[in-house]
Each structure stands twice: as C-alpha cells, then as structure tokens.
C-alpha cells in the first residue's frame, strides 16, 4: 500500500507548485513540472495528481493545510463501523428472511434487493423507529 503524504510533504508540494521554474530551467509545462516535483519530494507523479486534483484543488490554488485537514478527517471516519441497535438488527433480519425464502433468487440478487429496500440511512431511519414501537 502506498504511503500517505504527511504535512511536511504537502507543504513542500505547495511551495514547489508555486515556483515558476526550477534551477534556471525556465517555465515548465505542467507535465514536466510534476515530474520534477515528484523527483524532489520522492513520490510518484500519480500521487501528486491525486493529491491535487482529487482533493478539489487545481495546480494554481493548492493548499497544503486544507488538503492535510481533509485527509486526516477522511482517514478518521473511514474506519468507523456501524453499531446497530437491536431494533435495526431486527429490521435487517426481517428483510433478509422475507426475501431469502424465494429459492429462485441468487445470493447477488438477494443482496441487490436488500440494498434497494433498505432505508438509505438506517441509523436515522423512520423504519427502524417503527420497529421500536
């Protein structure tokens, strides 16, 4: 798995993106500039591309501090697991039992049907509240 950029590398990236030229080479095309920056920072060009473009910046307005804050937030919420209440578990199980009795359905079709029938936000769903009553 690839290493994540830390704040220091992001600041270096921001600084290098703002530089008009490198070692007197004159203005570079964005392709050549990314290649040079990737060599200096020690990451792949694709990492720089994903860091800048996929985080909603352009090469002219990249902000290392905002990108780092977004990255830390994304990583912190990525590992949260759902903890369902007993009522929510019952709702899921009832939906599953209702569709699992049809022997003509493949497991994949069953899962797709459950996804379509399941409330989008089961944590705050009115359907899960009905089970509580």
What features would you describe in this structure?
With 133 residues, the protein is mostly helical. α1 (7-18) runs antiparallel to α2 (30-41). Helices cover 61% and strands 0% of the residues. The protein has helices at residues 7-18, 30-41, 45-53, 64-78, 86-100, 107-117, 126-132. It folds into 2 domains: 7-78, no CATH class; 86-132, no CATH class. The radius of gyration is 24 Å and the shape is elongated.
Q: How are the elements arranged and paired?
A:
Elements: H1 7-18, H2 30-41, H3 45-53, H4 64-78, H5 86-100, H6 107-117, H7 126-132
Helix pairs in contact: 1-2, 1-4, 2-3, 5-6, 5-7
Write a brief caption for the model.
With 133 residues, the chain is mainly alpha-helical.
Q: Into how many domains do the coordinates divide?
A: 2
Radius of gyration: 24 Å
The ordered H/E elements are HHHHHHH
Mean pLDDT: 77
Determine the strand fraction and express it as a percent band.
under 5%
Find the structural class using helix and strand composition: mainly alpha
The end-to-end distance, rounded to whole angstroms, is 47 Å
Number of helices: 7
Report helical residue fraction.
55-70%
Shape annotation: elongated
Largest β sheet strand count, sense and barrel closure: none
Number of strands: 0
The low-confidence parts are 126-133
Jot down its keywords:
133 residues; elongated; 61% helix; mainly alpha
């Amino acid at each position: 798995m690839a290493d994540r950029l830390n704040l220091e590398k992001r600041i270096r990236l921001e600084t290098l993106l703002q530089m008009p030229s490198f070692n007197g080479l004159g203005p570079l095309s964005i392709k050549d500039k990314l290649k040079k920056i990737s060599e200096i920072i020690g990451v792949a060009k694709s990492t720089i591309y994903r860091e800048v473009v996929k985080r909603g910046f352009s090469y002219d307005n990249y902000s290392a501090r905002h990108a780092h804050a977004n990255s830390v937030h994304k990583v912190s919420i990525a590992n949260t697991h759902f903890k369902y209440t007993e009522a929510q578990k019952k709702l899921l199980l009832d939906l599953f039992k209702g569709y699992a009795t049809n022997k003509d359905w493949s497991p994949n079709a069953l899962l797709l049907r459950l996804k379509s029938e399941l409330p989008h936000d089961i944590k705050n769903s009115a359907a899960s509240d009905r089970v509580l009553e």
